[in-house]
Design brief:
This protein has about 180 residues and is an alpha+beta fold. It has 5 helices and 6 strands; from the N terminus they run ββαααβββαβα. Helix content is about 35%, strand content about 30%.
Length: about 180
């Protein structure tokens, strides 16, 4: 599947195609890296006191990478689940998305929940995030979703701004209070 993206480079517009492909077992290393990166960007301010390299080393040494990947793979049993890498036609990774569906029969609702959404560093600030969100929204509508939900860190200003530009509204606020020193 292709999504045509218009990119602004000064006054010149050019079209570049983005290819979305379903993730597979060979993608596990890149998925773990991208998930860790987005976790860091969305984590609490005290967690981000660590330099990224230390944060990454700690996260990779826990059971969380395996749990994350197993959850992703299990979710793909639902044919509506989207777990895709967005790539340029020459194979450069632009981003990654993972969307699960939750049916709420008592309310007659289907919710498409964005579990992961990341644009790789070299591709940020070019409108790629809006393109990926549009791709997600189109698929969610095709799959019968009534709502599209996404979470991000409150300090992740770029992500918050991107969501607002795409029409998302705040529906829940979570609070955290640090009670002990974390070493």
């Amino acid at each position: 599947m292709y999504l045509e993206c218009w990119l602004r480079r000064g006054r010149v517009k050019r079209m570049e195609r983005i290819v979305y492909r379903k993730v597979g077992p060979a993608d596990k290393p890149v998925l773990l890296e991208l998930h860790c990166e987005i976790n860091y960007a969305c984590d609490t301010s005290w967690a981000r006191e660590l330099p990224y390299g230390e944060y990454r080393a700690k996260w990779m040494s826990t059971s969380q990478p395996g749990q994350y990947y197993d959850s992703l793979i299990r979710s793909m049993d639902d044919p509506r689940t989207m777990a895709q890498l967005a790539e340029t036609e020459d194979g450069r990774t632009v981003g990654y998305l993972w969307v699960e569906y939750v049916d709420v029969p008592d309310y007659g609702l289907t919710i498409a929940e964005i579990r992961d959404f990341v644009i790789c560093g070299d591709f940020r600030g070019q409108g790629r995030g809006l393109g990926l969100l549009a791709h997600i929204e189109e698929a969610a509508k095709r799959n019968g979703a009534d709502l599209l939900r996404s979470e991000t860190g409150s300090d992740n200003i770029a992500s918050c701004s991107l969501h607002r530009k795409h029409g998302f509204e705040t529906y829940r606020v979570a609070f955290e209070k640090r009670l002990a020193d974390m070493d």
